[in-house]
Prior knowledge:
The chain is of the alpha/beta class. The protein folds into two domains: about 10-45 and about 305-404, Aspartate Aminotransferase, domain 1 (Alpha-Beta Complex); about 55-305, Type I PLP-dependent aspartate aminotransferase-like (Major domain) (Aspartate Aminotransferase, domain 2, 3-Layer(aba) Sandwich). The chain contains twelve helices and 17 strands. The protein is globular and about 60 Å long. The structure holds D-malate (MLT).
Amino acid sequence: MYKVNENYLKIQGNYLFSTIAKKVQEFSEQNPDKEVIRLGIGDVTQPLAPVLVNALQEAVQEMASADTFHGYAPDLGYEFLRSEIAKNDYQSRGCQISAEEIFVSDGAKCDCGNIQEIFSTDNKIAVCDPVYPVYVDTNVMAGRTGKYDAVIQGYEGVIYMPCMAENDFVPEFPKEVPDMIYLCYPNNPTGAVITKEQLQEWVDYAQKVGAVILYDAAYEAYIASDEIPHSIYECEGAKSCAIEFHSFSKNAGFTGVRLGYTVVPKELKCGGVSLHDLWARRHGTKYNGAPYIVQKAGAAVYTKEGKAQIKNQISYYMENASMILEGLKQAGYQVYGGVNAPYIWLKTPGRMSSWEFFDELLKNANVVGTPGSGFGPHGEGYFRLTAFGTHENTKKALERIARM
Length: 404
Ligand code: MLT
């Protein structure tokens, strides 16, 4: 008799956002007259910027003619996109990252989830608590953790690093030494940011203990302050201890189009083995690349018009973030994030648990958010709202919350 991968049996319940979607669907079926506003999953609502739509349309036309048709993309992604990424996202910020160190993919979620494959299952992972569930779940699936422990509300063998208001949601170095450290800033779910000095300390720590940092920079486009690093490679020495993930979902609205990239510097070596070569091998074997038309749209993000149109879209969402921050403060909530990030992290009122608040908000305000405890035990008593709604819905949601 064949056997399943038993590591999958350790995973708790459903993926957080699937559980929420199911609850909301049930509520809507029972209350068909109620207009539900979704500020739960971080999915964008604004249409693709015109310059991106043009790029997509032009690329589709190319596909319609034998002499301009494109089949399989090159393993690492098209050079026209990788060179724009290297120039705009790195070299212009003083980071010496070349196009050959960039791997284009269909999104940061897949890369964040898949990257662990190139590391030994004996490695110990450290994650922030609360945390984007993908980092933990994919390591559970790979067998890099023990069983789920209901008491600690976490998996055996995982180093959880508490992120609380007391430490500005930036973790302290763990007592136990990790091999792989997942960091995400601007942070999902807390909306917190890390300063360059703090990030440099993490780079120095990783070098000292011989760990690799897996840095998720999916929300870097929301950074409004010059003090906050856009990339871990702004820190000295990061090229020899860090891998970085980027998404086009949150800056350019590609959640439904799918595009992202991962940077694996050539000088990143583990006992003499090049991680760049391992990831290239994995990419070539398991992946046939993001579609040509999507990579063309990705390159349009870096044109002058593309940058301007995308900037407007980010401002649009950040106006929502300010509206949520102000509205919640006025309604008496304790709030965090929402300044350099599209997420607002609020303390649930009284002693209400995160899921109790979820139910209350859905029932009484018909607003969907994400329970903080779904991101880890230190998320208990917190709740996440996203700034990715429309202005109209965000305003309406806040009016309803204020009335609650
Ligand atoms: C979130 O809501 O945390 C994000 O949408 C997750 C993701 O980007 O996969």
